[in-house]
TrEMBL record, chain A:
Provenance organism: Massilia litorea
Record-given protein name: Transporter substrate-binding domain-containing protein
Record lineage: Bacteria, Pseudomonadati, Pseudomonadota, Betaproteobacteria, Burkholderiales
SUPFAM superfamilies found in the cross-reference section: Periplasmic binding protein-like II (SSF53850)
Cell location: Cell envelope
Listed InterPro entries: Iontro_rcpt_C, SBP_3_CS, Solute-binding_3/MltF_N
UniProtKB/TrEMBL annotation, chain B:
Job of this protein: Part of the binding-protein-dependent transport system for glutamine; probably responsible for the translocation of the substrate across the membrane.
This protein's name: Putative glutamine transport system permease protein GlnP
Pfam families: BPD_transp_1
Domain of life of the organism encoding this protein: Bacteria
CDD domains: TM_PBP2
Keyword Transport assigned: yes
TM region positions: 20-42, 185-202
Keywords: Amino-acid transport, Cell membrane, Membrane, Transmembrane, Transmembrane helix, Transport
Species in which this protein is naturally found: Massilia litorea
Listed GO CC annotations: ATP-binding cassette (ABC) transporter complex
Family: Belongs to the binding-protein-dependent transport system permease family. HisMQ subfamily.
Localization in the cell: Cell inner membrane; Cell membrane
Length: 270, 218
């Protein structure tokens, strides 16, 4: 669940990005539809973080990008008849890069939020997931909701929707971390009582982190993930939505989701 | 041993990242010197028209975060039709930033050379430029080396900021490995060791430069 709200940052850089975006927004956008631009170029430039497994990450063996987002992006590009060109960049700068045209789309678990929709257009959602608690393996308290964490310390990603949700419950001591590895290590050390992250990521975390942690309850609303692109490209939106609908109809999305998450996250009820 | 296996797995990505870090730092050092020397000379120039743009430049570059400068150059300038590749934008931002600091080191060193050195030059019939080049600068450089080396060694670490413009230098490469291995501590320590090793090389260069410039003062 790509977590950054547009104006509150995971890192300082995002606010800078927002300033740059604001500057850019004053200037006229190019007239041609993005679809014509990418067709003429023959390739789709796709941005992702490359540090967010199992969604998108550098495979340790091959050094190549791998993950659910990578496979989805390749499948979408193929449906559009385009060659995928991947760019990895830090999350803090990723929306600024989209706004200034460094790439065409972001496929990196970008949550569809009202604020982001003011700045960008989104494809139809391609992933649904919800926040989930993570606790130490020997934890005796079974937290069922965020309200149960009052007076406890909860670790979240900086500027994430998880952070916003945690802060909206009074009494929780919220600690924000740059990324999941640091967050989980502090959880294992006992510096925090629980962590909150994407339910789709939790299974991967438990399998690969080798830390004494276990999955807790799912606690929040379901989030929808989409593919953002610059506003004012109706033809591109139609083609992108068509490609995603096709992948949904023929079961490709479901197959990719099952491969990476062990469950079908490609539709609302899961 | 798990730690050894982890570091061996991380090594190719991190060493490639370190290579980019080194390239960025070297390119920015050359760029920074190319900017810093003329700016320092402009700031001590007897003509006000030369002084004020240099003063403004130094003030802006020292008064704003490097991260903002990188952002503006890479993500902001395309809005007015100026487009750079990530490499160019990164080197440009680092050069412009370090150039300002280098010029201040050099200006301070020139100011430390006593006025009678200038007067001695003039009394021998040398012009402003000749006195500067043959009398003042050789002495000033010797004073400037330690603080200029500070700036250049800082550059090696400042390169980590270019990861926000899609460049996989050492820090981003390290984060990529941490993202899949969940072992922050040993990998951050390994990155720190690489930065330190790179800095040691430049400390050695500083030592050589100091020895060379001190020959006349032994």
């Amino acid at each position: 669940m790509r977590t950054l709200s547009f104006f509150s940052s995971r890192r300082r850089a995002c606010q800078l990005g927002a300033v740059v975006l604001a500057l850019g927004a004053v200037l006229p956008a190019s007239a041609a539809d993005l679809l014509d631009t990418v067709k003429a170029r023959g390739s789709l430039r796709i941005a992702m973080e490359g540090t967010y497994p199992p969604f998108n990450f550098k495979d340790g063996k091959t050094g190549q990008l791998a993950g659910y987002d990578v496979d989805v992006a390749k499948a979408v590009a193929a449906r559009l008849g385009l060659k995928p060109e991947f760019v990895t960049t830090e999350w803090s700068a990723i929306l600024a890069g989209l706004a200034s045209g460094k790439y065409d789309v972001i496929v990196s678990q970008v949550g569809i939020t009202a604020r982001r929709e003011q700045a960008f257009d989104f494809s139809q959602p391609y992933t649904w997931s919800s926040p989930q608690l993570i606790v130490r393996r020997n934890e005796s308290i079974a937290y069922q909701s965020l309200a149960d964490l009052k007076g406890k310390t909860l670790g979240v990603g900086q500027g994430s929707v998880f952070e916003q949700q945690a802060r909206s419950v009074p009494g929780i001591l919220v600690k924000s971390y740059p990324a999941a590895p640091e967050n989980l290590q502090d959880l294992a050390f006992g510096r925090i009582d629980a962590a909150l992250n994407d339910s789709l990521m939790v299974a991967y975390l438990l399998k690969n982190s080798q830390l004494p942690i276990k999955a807790g309850a799912r606690v929040g609303a379901v989030e929808r993930m989409g593919i953002p692109f610059r506003k004012g490209n109706p033809k591109f939106k139609a083609a992108l939505d068509g490609a995603l609908a096709g992948l949904q109809a023929d079961g490709s999305l479901k197959a990719l989701s099952t491969r990476w998450f062990g469950s079908d996250a490609s539709r609302p009820a899961h | 041993m798990a730690l050894f296996a982890l570091l061996r797995e991380a090594a190719p990505a991190m060493l490639t990242g370190a290579g980019y870090t080194l390239l960025f730092a070297l390119a920015a050092m050359i760029g920074g010197m190319a900017i810093g020397v003329p700016v320092a000379l402009m700031r001590i120039a007897p003509v006000a028209v030369l002084r004020w743009p240099a003063t403004l430049y130094v003030s802006v570059m020292r008064g704003t975060p490097l991260l903002v400068q990188i952002f503006v150059i890479y993500y902001g300038l395309p809005g007015i039709g100026i487009e750079f590749t990530p490499v160019t934008a990164g080197v440009l931002a680092l050069s412009l930033n370090s150039g300002a600091y280098l010029s201040e080191s050099l200006r301070g060193a020139i100011a430390s050379i006593r006025q009678d050195q200038w007067r001695a030059g003039f009394s021998l019939g040398l012009g402003y430029g000749q006195t500067l080049v043959h009398v003042v600068l050789p002495q000033a450089l010797r004073v400037a080396v330690p603080s200029m080396s500070n700036t250049l060694i800082s550059l090696i670490k400042d390169t980590s900021l270019v990861s926000v413009i899609t460049m996989t230098e050492l820090m981003l490469a390290t984060k990529e490995v941490i993202a899949t291995t969940f072992q922050p501590l040993p990998l951050y320590l390994a990155a720190a060791a690489i930065y330190w090793a790179l800095s040691l090389v430049f400390e050695q260069v500083q030592r050589l430069a100091e020895r060379r410039l001190n020959r006349a003062h032994r």
